[in-house]
Amino acid sequence: MKILDLKKTAVILVTMLLFLSMQISAFASDNCTVVKIPVRQIFDSEVEGIADEFSYIMTTDQSDAPMPAGSRNMQYSWTMEKNAATEIILNVKTAGQYHYNIYQTTEKKDDYNYDQSRYYVTVDAYYNESNQLKVVTIVTNEKGEKIEAISFKNSYTGEEKPNPTQPSNPSQPSGPSNSDESGKINSVNSVKTGDDSPVMGYFLLLFGSLICLSVLIHEKQKRNKGESQDEA
């Protein structure tokens, strides 16, 4: 009797594990991969209260290249203030190799130093043997050196606070930025690619295993209780 109960419970457990494994495959086969490109701004000033906006843009000459939400004419622009960080998010849905340029477009003013660096992003999307869309993202500087994060450093060299002026590029839409009021740069990880959905599948797998284990323990306790009553 005990052997039959254990076999029955084992069959239920194996069936549930197989079902959940199928669910994990479904999550992983979703043909959309999210690419996150971190960009940070460093601003130096000996004068307090400087809060100018600095403008940036990401462009591509490929009409089929995925672009962030809010892009126009294959261009995505945003602004940042002080020490800040943001992430450019791309939803890659088709295989291919896509190229982007990222640089600063702030209108120059006196007593400011602007970072004129230009960065190049290559997104290589392909299907693996399981027909899952995978992405490799490479970011390089003007020297062709691979980097993990895009960074621009601007500074104000004046001795007095400048008179308030209008934003440098008011016609350009502002993208999402994450400014830190304390002047510290929020932590930004390296370029991220991939889909977090498999994590949910593993959680379901663990949850199902715990349920089966609970059933097994309950049946064992029930059986032990019945045996004790028979002996009494």
List the helices and strands and how they pair.
Blueprint: H1 2-28, E1 33-45, E2 53-59, E3 75-81, E4 84-92, E5 96-104, E6 112-113, E7 118-127, E8 133-140, E9 146-147, E10 150-156, E11 178-179, E12 192-194, H2 197-231
Parallel strand pairs: 1-10
Antiparallel strand pairs: 1-4, 1-12, 2-3, 2-5, 4-11, 5-7, 6-10, 7-8, 8-9
InterPro entries: Strep_pil_isopept_link, Strep_pil_link_sf
Signal peptide: 1-28
Biased composition (Low complexity): 166-179
Question: How would you summarize this macromolecular structure in one to three sentences?
Answer:
The chain crosses the membrane at residues 199-217. This protein is of the alpha+beta class and 232 residues long.
What features would you describe in this structure?
This protein folds into 2 domains: 61 residues; 162 residues, Immunoglobulin-like (Sandwich), CATH 2.60.40. Helices cover 27% and strands 34% of the residues. The protein has 2 helices and 12 strands, in the order αββββββββββββα. Strands 1, 4, 6, 10, 11 and 12 form a 6-stranded mixed β-sheet that branches. Strands 3-2-5-7-8-9 form a 6-stranded antiparallel β-sheet, with no helix packed on it. A hairpin with a 5-residue loop joins strand 7 and strand 8. The two termini are 20 Å apart. About 17% of the residues have low confidence.
